[in-house]
Amino acid sequence: MHRTVAALLIGLALVAGCSAKVEQGTAKPVGGDNPPVAKVTTAPADGAADVPVNVPAQVTVAEGVIDEVALTNPEGTPVKGKIADDKKSWSSTEPLGYGKTYTYAGRVTGTDGRPVDLKGAFTTINPAVQVRATLFPGDNQTMGVAVPIKVEFDADVADRATVEKALTVTNSAGVQGSWAWLSSREVHYRPEKYWPANTQIHVEAKLYGVPYGGGAFGRADVTSDFTIGRHQLVKIDTPSHQLVVQRDGQTVASYPASFGKDADPNLATPNGTFVVMQKFDTWSFDNPQYGYTNVVKKWSVRFSNHGEFIHENNDNAANIGTNNTSHGCANLLEADAKAYYDSALVGDPVEVTGSITTLPPQFDWYDWQIPWSQWQSMSAL
């Protein structure tokens, strides 16, 4: 009897001892039932639709660091991106594609040491229309001091302000200029005065992904780097019968010329500041209204889309230097026409005075016929 009671007491004591030990050492596995502390944010968010393609995708983490991130297109190709030095964020470094679903994957580690998986997907916008833009001048060209910078679109631009904000011009001379919309498909840039000689110019049209309005978006970015050459201009005072070439402020040539007929406003060489647009070794002139077609002349330099050129016309030698008898062009003797042709750059200004006719600003390139204040008002911004 005494042995049984003693054994029972010893057993109870052992049970009580085990129970006390568990209570004193109570602990849950690291983290237990608490959620991980790391908080991951993605932009675009999981499930987002109609996402812009020209805004970087981003992953950020609070109370943790990024271990790895992958953003892949439908073909499984990763989008290029970079984790920040502090490992708190990741950003894509290349544009996204139109109308594609992208998938996030990766992992972060919280300050509690626990990992969190990154998952999600979003879809980019799929434009109804993608508009192509072209830029002039192109790369590595040397242009005259009056050259305009032109961006032309293959469809109308409804939201001109948004598009214009995507256009930038920088130059080595620090010259300021302004964009002006000449139509719903064409915008030009020029400074108040001619470009300084030898200026280096960089143009960026960051148009990919830009909304043009009406469901249209930019198809691609375009850029250009070109140079302004020496400062050369042509001065034509029609009653003088002389075509004067000035370079860097000095007269370097004065050629006898015959300009448009003085008494006929339809044929007179018009007043205005024009720009050399094209050069041709030979050019065929046609004007059936005045009775001639396929009249081929050498060393032809176009300075207006109204039809004006500087060119050789030895057939009119008797009037060159004495009478204005052309249909609006500047006629020179062949040797003089060749000498001028060789000196001319696209973009050189041609300043005409003394005529009975002044053209309205509507025949390319008419940028310099528009007063500066009016030009600035033609910006969409």
TrEMBL record:
Residues 232-353 form the L,D-TPase catalytic domain. One of its GO terms (molecular function) is acyltransferase activity. Keywords: Acyltransferase, Cell shape, Cell wall biogenesis/degradation, Lipoprotein, Peptidoglycan synthesis, Signal, Transferase. InterPro entries: Big_10 (IPR041280), LD-transpeptidase (IPR050979), LD_TPept_cat_dom (IPR005490), Transpep_catalytic_dom (IPR038063). The active site is at H311, C329. CDD domains: LDT_IgD_like_2, YkuD_like. Gene3D superfamilies: 2.60.40.3710, 2.60.40.3780, L,D-transpeptidase catalytic domain-like. Pathway: Cell wall biogenesis; peptidoglycan biosynthesis. SUPFAM superfamilies: L,D-transpeptidase catalytic domain-like (SSF141523). GO terms for biological process: cell wall organization; peptidoglycan-protein cross-linking; regulation of cell shape. One of its GO terms (cellular component) is extracellular region. Residues 1-20 form the signal peptide. PROSITE patterns: LD_TPASE, PROKAR_LIPOPROTEIN. This is Lipoprotein-anchoring transpeptidase ErfK/SrfK. It comes from Saccharothrix ecbatanensis. The lineage of its organism: Bacteria, Bacillati, Actinomycetota, Actinomycetes, Pseudonocardiales.
